[in-house]
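Hey, I was hoping to borrow your eyes for a little while. I'm sending you its amino acid sequence along with the backbone structure tokens. Take your time with it, there's no hurry, and the full record follows here.
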Amino acid sequence: MMHLKKNTCVFQSCESEYKDAEVVIFSSPMDATCSFRPGTRFAGSAIREDSIGLEWYSPYFDMDLKDVPTCDIGDLELPLGDVEGSLKEISRITKGILNDNKKVMMIGGEHLVTLGTIREYVKKYPSLHIIHFDAHTDLREEFLGRKLSHATVLRKCYDLLGDGRIAQFGIRSGDSSEFYWADEGHTYLHKYDLEGLNERIEAWKDEPIYITIDLDVLDPSIFPGTGTPEAGGISYKELQQAILDMRKLNNIVGADIVELSPHYDASGVSTAVACKVLREMVLLLHYQKYGKK
């Protein structure tokens, strides 16, 4: 069992002791490879501060955050500017949580932080599958001279998982070579919207599933507070319905939300949206045990 300091500022009502928790929230404040607008390192603290305005109860799930055992351990202490060192620390924390038979709910950070969790998840769950929501393909082999980048993260995850175990939805931006590579059968890539999600849910119903949500899958008219906004995205209602549809999955083992850069949206709307997505994802991780069937 890992021994962790109690976090004094937590996501709304997620105040269980670590030993009692079944889902563990942490944030990975890294934006070292950001190629346009940095600032995702501030997402975790912004979400925690704003979550005071979020109701504990979700009418969508008919579940309440205060009724499910969740611990928020706060921001990880990552070595500033050290990409591989940061990924190793994310992996170390993830390994401890998995060894204690708990689920990770990570807040980014840039999307590359997902690789840190997946490196450990694939060890515990060799048949791991990923459901990926994003505006961008993230399938480059390298970007701006970096093999480890927010633009290469799903390709690096693919290197660990192999063909046919990553499904991508909402994709509307990337190099042509990424789309062609995916179309060769390496990933299930669905452009523009969420069609085909229920088909993947049915096909992967009993597989171990990790869900990664890059919040820029949402249209920037809804979610402008991100580093690489991309017009033509989905609505919040579409994302909410996707989260509810994933209740049909029997073995969701972990998740993350990434790429909120709160200071690009002075209205605070993007942070409010991220808070609500996080609430719904925490409840989804608890659903198989605590949800009303």
About this structure: The longest helix spans residues 269-290. The longest strand covers residues 252-258.
